[in-house]
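Support reply, case 0932

Customer input (verbatim):
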Amino acid sequence: MKVLRVCTLVTIALAFVAITETTYGWELLFDGKSTDNWTPLAEVEIFEAKGKKLHLFSKRNVWVVSQQKMKNFEVECEVKIPLDYEGFNSGLGFRLSDGKGKPIGYQCEIDRFKPAGIYGIGMGGWLYPSKTNQQEYNRKIKNLFIAENWNHFRVICNGTKCITFLNGHKIAEINSVKEVVGQFGIQHHGKGGIVKFRNIKVKKIN
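Our regenerated output:
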């Protein structure tokens, strides 16, 4: 009876969380249970939902994209990178469209060296930081990204403006992104172990 009661309470709690997210305009990009909402754009070794997390591992640079497409939005997620390769590289993609072998669009960088930087995939390369503001960027990110922990990334994209946050701290703000509708994506650059994502959600900006 106690087990049944606990299970019932857990079910109610999960339902409450889902309703709360919807009430405040958030849409879950990952429901914590399946990969149905996501499509790898190339072969991957591992892409699975496990313990309410998305696990991604690949031996090549690969993007996995969502079904949802938006132009103006706020998107966020938590990420845990593998520790077996110091140069591990991942990203949270947005305004992505089909390209040859990889999407075209933008990404919020996820790694030890330029976390929450903005990179244009087929759209100009590094948009922030640049050579002119690298020192400013270095001051902003100092001691913020902790590889051993879960790190929280947030992107607000509205018109030509794009702002990124790392663990609650504003990092980048640029006014030069193209106003296009696109998908969201997560990346594995092909070196290092399994990268894990959780609490991936988006809110449309009208």
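We compared this against your earlier run and they match. Two observations from our side: The longest helix spans residues 2-23. The domain at 29-204 is CATH 2.60.120.560 (Jelly Rolls). Please reopen the case if you see a mismatch on your end.
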